[in-house]
Structures are given as C-alpha cells and as structure tokens.
Amino acid sequence: MTVLLAGCQGGGGDGSTTTSGAAFDPATCQGGTLTVLNQGGINHLDPARLYTSGGGNLPSLLFRTLTTRNRQPGEAGAKAAPDLATDLGTPSDGAKTWTYHLRDGIQFEDGTPITSKDVKYGIERSFAPELPGGAPYLRDWLEGAADYQGPYKQPDGIKSIETPDDKTIVFKLRKPEGDFPYLATATQFAPVPKAKDSGVDYEKHPISSGPYQVESYEPKKSLVLVRNKNWSTKIDELRYACPDRIEVTSGLDAAVINQRLVTGAGQDANAVTTDAVVGPEQLAQLGTGSELDKRVTRGEFPSTLYLAFNTKKAPFDNPKVREALSYAINRTSVVNALGGSAVQGASTTFLPPQKALGQQPYDYFPAGASGDPAKAKQVLAEAGLTDLTVEVTHENDDSEGVGPKVAAAVQEAFKQAGVTVKLNAIDAATYRDVIGKPATQPGLVLTTWGADWPSGGPFLIPIFDGRQIITAGGNFNLAQYNDPAVNAEIDAINALTDPAAAAQRWGALDAKIGKLALVIPLTYEKDVYLYGKNVKNAYADGWRGQLDIARISVK
Questions:
Q1: Edge-to-edge strand order for the sheet containing 420-426?
Q2: Measured distance CA(229)–CA(212) in Å, rounded
Q3: Is 137 strand, coil or helix?
Q4: Rounded to an integer, what distance in angstroms lies between the CA atom of residue 350 and that of residue 282?
Q5: Cβ contacts of 91 within 8 Å, gap of 6 or more
Q6: Rounded (10°) angle between helices 484-494 and 457-464
Q7: Helix, strand or coil for residue 285?
Q8: Segments in 417-483 forming alpha helices (H)
C-alpha cells in the first residue's frame, strides 16, 4: 500500500533538519519575511466563509480552531490534534454529544481572553445566509440547526451548542458522528468576538487567534500578515511561526510561480507556494542530482479521478457493460495524459492509498497497465452486446484533470475493446451543475472527488449513501445507488470514535461496493512542490499534502 509521501529530499522532511543540513530549532527560527506565491485568489478572509479542513493553510495562521491537523509529514500527519481545546473532545450518548474544554491563556490579538461563547458565536455566524461558502456539515449534524439563519436574524442562537461556562462547549448532534474531531478543524470553529463582528465587513480585518494578524488585505490579490503579540508557543506548540512577516500574492500563473521558485532571485529565495504544483518543465529537471532536487517536497492530497456511471440510464444499468468497460480502461494512458507517474498514480480502488482512509487494495476487473480489451470484448459478448456505442462526458478544458486529454485516452482504450465512444464536452463553468442534477446527468462522466478530512467517511458517504441523492441539484451520488444495507453500515461506522477501527470498516465497505463497478477508478493525486533556496523545514503535511507554512523558516 502506498502511504502519504510527505518528506522532502534534504529539506527537513522529518521536521528536524534544514536545506543546509544544520539542525533546525523551532525556538531559534524566528525572523525574516516569507513570500507566498499562489494561483488561487484569497477571495474571502472571514472564517465563516472559508471552506477549509485542518484549519486551512493560510487561514490557520490567523485562526485557531477547537482541533487542527497535527502538522506532521507522512502517515502521522493525517491525525487531528487539540488546538484551542485541551483534547480531541469527549464523546457521550453514543457519539451524539461532544464536549470540549478550552486551554488556559488563549487570547485574541487585542489581548481579550477567548471563551467558549466566542467559539459558539463563530459557528453560528457560519449559518448566516449573508456569509455563504463554509463547510455545510454542521447544518446537518447539529440537532435542530437545519433551518437556523445565523445570529443576525436569530440572535438566540443554536440551542444544541451549549456553553455552561467560559471554558466548556458542548455539541448535541442528531445522530452519532465519530468524525467530529476532524470536523472541529474546520475554520467555522474559529472564535469570533461578538463585539467586533461587523457582518460582511468582518473579513476586512478579522480578529486573530493565531500567531499572525492582518496588516493589509486586498481580496483575490494580496495579504500581508505580521506577528500577533498576544500569541506564544506556550499556548500553541503546533505552530512554530518562524517568519516575522508573511506576504502573499495571489492570481499568478503556475508556470510563472515555479520559474520564480527555480530562479530564486531576490525575495523569491524566501518564497513558497501552497497551490502551484510543479509543472512539466521543472519535473524534467528533477531526479538529475541537481540543486533543485534539494528544494522539492512530495505529498498526496486524498483525491480520486474516476469515471462515474449513471446506473439509471441504459446501457449502464447493465452490470456487464460496466464490468466490460472496467476491463478495457488503460490507466497508463490516463496517467500520461495527466502529466505522468510523478504526479498521478494508477488506481483500481475508489479510496486513495492513504492508510487513514482505510484503503484495502482490490482489483476486481484487472486491466493491467494498459487495459485488457480481449476480456472486455468477452464480457460484452456474454451480455449479447457486440456493437456498443457510448458517450463520455467531460469538461471542455483540462485544468481540473477531467478534460479533453483524459477523455481522449478513455476513448482510445474503449475503441480497442470494440466500443465506439462519442465525446461530449461541457463548459467547465456549468459542468458540475449538469452532472449533479439527476434530470440532466449524462450516462458516463469524468469527475473527481477529494476528502474534506483524512477519513473514509467524507469520501464514501456523498458518493454511495442513497440518502445523499439530491434530485434538485448538487448531487454527488452519480450512480444513484441506494442500498439500505450500505446505508446502515455507514451509520454504524459513523458511530465509531476510534479512527483506526473506523478506517478498517471504511476500507471494507469500499471493497464491497467496488464489486458492483459503479465507478471506474482511474488515478489518485500526487503533489510535488518547489520552495525557495533560503526556505528551511519545508515539508508537505500528511493531511492535505501541501507545504505547512506554520512550520517554515526563512531565517
């Protein structure tokens, strides 16, 4: 089994060394300015409007949450850790109630103590229709919160969030949720002082609970962070906060970012990126023993690219057709279409190969490296289908990996099995809307899925829980699969509070569903990032496979 590859070659992948080989000491790493060069714009800076897991990356520098990722490379980094809270929470009532206690000494940037009421208010703001965009789980999980409209319209708040004292917060859920400590890493769990809340304008200068505070912010363009003097490592051992200043520039082209990191001129020597993976030009230079090899880190974001069957549409209502196409697929050609084996791995399971998700290797329709057209033809003949034509729907550009390049690879593989493929390109701006509405969903689509946190639940539930089918739109269960036994197993696993035990059950469930050929898994994601020549202690965390800025030094 492949696990999270999150070390960096000569660059402190274990968190203990630097690019020069000298010992890294978080107690003496302070100083300098870190530059962050990103593609994605910082569209919002309000914790209620940020959809992040593990506390986010840049957001985690500003906002502490009840729990957070434990900021380790590799497999260990897929675990949650206490942040504002003293532990991962105490479950009771069969994991329907979760109780947290806050640490001593935690403060906002103005020195005001952070209380449980601030955490409760921050969560309630995320329900306000004026502040859309955050993770949607709490509306479903919290008892009696489905119709709550936020504190501006309903100031009485959510009754299922209780704050018996300033250090205690209790969540009452409508069903067991063993993954609650993972959800508590979401930015919606960041405290917000009610007295400083300015509604939609709050993001202009959100009040920090983390190691940095906002000096300036221009949406979609730039963000400058400086030290929060009321934060210290005594109350937050997970974030090292080495740089004195962090300057973020967004909206850049990925090729430009990587070229600047390679050249390392001026302040670019102190630069990193959190979203521009290494491009073809730089990949060609890696592994040659050059200086660049010392400035790369590799991680894996848990994500699967796959073909999804609409089992309500012929011929995909026939399991034999789905099986035959599974045998026919050429995963090598798909990997190559996406940039090669350095950035994609061939996958025969829906769950990606991270241990935390519980993946159990299986390959029920072995196609080998390049497909088995003979076996595909045999299965189709057994079904009495010797002249099959299908349509494959995809996005009209390749930016998300589900565009013309991969579609062409799929078309050619099916052609080798005697299947005629018509390609149907849909504008990327409306693609998810079309495929996510059962009334307009095509028969066979290219799509991807990534986990909101490193557990099998957020990977399997939206895709295979029949109760998650949404007819009005926004549906992810594209197979429109609804098996009461599978739904019941999902509920049983959700009640488990031991992540290891849950992972084993999620893996077994994935292996069970895989026999039905509801999807054809194609690849899982590998991420390769460069960083500047002066950057130290750079490694991809095991939660999302990205560089963890909270532990980087440029001194």
A1: 344-346, 519-525, 303-309, 444-450, 389-395, 420-426
A2: 8
A3: helix
A4: 30
A5: 97, 98, 178, 180, 497
A6: 160
A7: coil
A8: 428-435, 457-464
Q: Rounded CA gap, 438 and 463, in Å?
A: 13
pTM of the complete model beyond 0.85: yes
Query: Which tens digits make up the pLDDT trace of 85-144?
Result: 999 999 999 999 999 999 999 999 999 999 999 999 999 999 999 999 999 999 999 999
Helix (H) or strand (E) holding 350: none
What the block records as the tokens of 510 is 């994935």
Q: CA–CA separation, 193 vs 326, rounded Å?
A: 53
- What is the b/e burial string over 486-524, where b = at least 16 CB atoms within 10 angstroms of the residue's CB? bbebbeebbebbebeebbbbbbebbbbbbebbbbbbbbb
Integer Cα distance of 397 and 405 in angstroms:
9
Rounded CA-CA distance 245/79 in Å is: 28
Q: Determine phi and psi for 80, rounding to 5 degrees.
A: -80, 155
Measure the CA–CA gap between 218 and 81, rounded to whole angstroms.
32
Residues 433/473, Cβ–Cβ less than 8 Å: yes
Provide the residue count of the chain: 555
Is 5's pLDDT higher than 90? Answer: no
Contact assessment for residue 278 and residue 529, using Cβ atoms and an 8 Å cutoff: yes
* DSSP secondary structure letter of residue 406: H
Structure tokens that stand for 285 in this block:
């230079």
Round to whole Å and give the CA distance between 294 and 370.
Answer: 33
Rounded Cα–Cα distance for residues 70 and 181 (Å): 12
- Residues of the chain by 3-state class (helix, strand, coil), percent to 5: 30, 20, 50
